[in-house]
Plasmid stabilization protein
Amino acid sequence: MYEVKFTPKGKRDLKKLSKDIRSRVVKKLEFYSKEPDPLEFSKPLVDLPPATHRFKVGSYRIAFYIEEKIIFIVRIRHRKDIYR
């Protein structure tokens, strides 16, 4: 089981989301944290350091990296904005 932690930008992004999107994101993060290998559900990222992978929740993307059983959430943005 993995622990989920937010960077300051990740926490700010989560607070900016509407209530329904926020609950969907939190539910998905809970699901991924309980999986033995959450990277199985992710795609690798190239130019968005320090994030190395991303999860997809509807039209939103969750950029993250993993260190020692901790998923660090870097950004949560709409797909049209996250890669800029």
In short: The chain has one domain: 3-78.
